[in-house]
Amino acid sequence: MDMTTGSNESKSRYLRYLEIVTGSLEEKKRYRRYKARVKRLPDNYRIAVEALERYLMHFGPADGAGAMEMYEDLADLFEQSAADATPIRDLFGDDPIEFAETFMANYPLGQYRARERHRFASAVARAAGDTTPPQGRTV
């Protein structure tokens, strides 16, 4: 199959299809820039950021721009902390989990997680015989 086309419309359609399958190319570029920034941090800050990143990937926003905004802000925070020589413990405090949860609270959940939370809360409400839609942390 020949992927080269004579028209921009066909190429544009192909790129749109490719992004549907593989995800946004711009988001991939942003992620690579973020990873390069983290790699340039001093070792102790890099280790801390990578640990926090692993945690955020499991519990933070799960998709697209919301996640990338969070990671870019994370890089900003650690770059500034390294420049100011802020001790890691001063940055995280006594409870790293509380720090991570507070940090994540500033960003919306990914669409998938918000949808699944709503689906779960609705199913429990139906099972309990509730007639009103679920309230609370569904998004």
Automatic annotation (TrEMBL):
SUPFAM superfamilies: BH3980-like. It holds the Pfam family DUF1048. InterPro entries: UCP029876. This is DUF1048 domain-containing protein. It comes from the Bacteria.
